[in-house]
Amino acid sequence: MKALTYHGAKSVKVDNVPDPGLANADDIILKVTATAICGSDLHIYRGKIPGMEHGDILGHEFMGVVEEAGSGVTSLRKGDRVVIPFVIACGQCYYCNKKLFAGCETTNPQTSTLDGRGALMNKKTSTSGAGLFGYSHLYGGYSGGQAEYVRVPKANVGPIKVPNALADEQVLFLSDILPTGYQAAVNAQLGPGSSVAIFGAGPVGLMAALSARFLGADKIFMIDHHSYRLGFARDTYGVIPINFDDDEDPAETILKATQNHGVDASIDAVGFEAKGSALETTLAALKLEGSSGKALRQCIAATRRGGVISVPGVYAGFIHGFLFGDAFEKGLIFKMGQTHAQLYMPELLEHIGNGKMKPEVIITHRMSLADAAKGYEIFNNKEEDCRKVVLTP
Prior knowledge:
By secondary structure, this protein is α/β, with parallel strands linked by helices. Helix content is 25%, strand content 22%. The mean pLDDT is 93.
């Protein structure tokens, strides 16, 4: 089959690779009908995620039709049309029983060569978190869905059947960015009349804006440095755009617009590749710190006392200049982490079905899988006003 494979920083290509086969009784083989390039994929593309090996198949946002089902699969059969969550969860462990599916401790086990606990630094004897599709051997080394076919383990727990009345593009983002943006808004405790600052107008930031508006937020500030993304968010979700190329201190601007209190919550949809100071850039390059803390510092400054900072953006390692004392002084709540996608997918599918959510409006580029490398280049370089790329095998 054809699949997009990794060969180093900014080097991906579509290769002929072996077709996947069933490995466990609760596996399915999925014929992929649509897949997308996620902002998190760009971390891999830029060579920023350790644990990648040459030939690894990328992609964690995908959907398709069940081609084959293992003998232990009870909820699906050949021909079912499903969306696959990017988190692989067993549904039975300590964390799955708490509906914390991203904490599943059975799908990213330790082996003789891999630790199996993701990016944790101070691991001690803690158990692992969930495996992820197409996201390095830190998270299980599972093949991703930017391919013609993919093996989907734990198929009784993750895949969700979708009605034929809904097009692929309407439901594809149930795989990651829509539940991720929604969890970010829920974690931010948004409701009618809330105010929120969303840092980052990429796909997750846009889904957070969609979700914030859906939950009743009244005032949404959005901070980014791409004017075309801010313009789209303003026109589509009614955000108040702030371009940090023109405004060096968005947090101060937000404070002045909120009687110097700050917003009820801030959402950091940027993550560890936020642009920081020259010192932070140097420290990160020397691997003396994990990432810039600029976005988090802005979140802390922009949020009112007793407010919430929600972090869907990916972070790893330690951060210089976190300003923990400021967070303590303001009594802030932090909620963050990988998305418990299985928890939110049924509810969000219902909202898509009744027309209350239209995540597909962010799509700008539709390409074939054969052109996936070009799609990565366009998305990474923010060419052609690219917001989101969808690939079809």
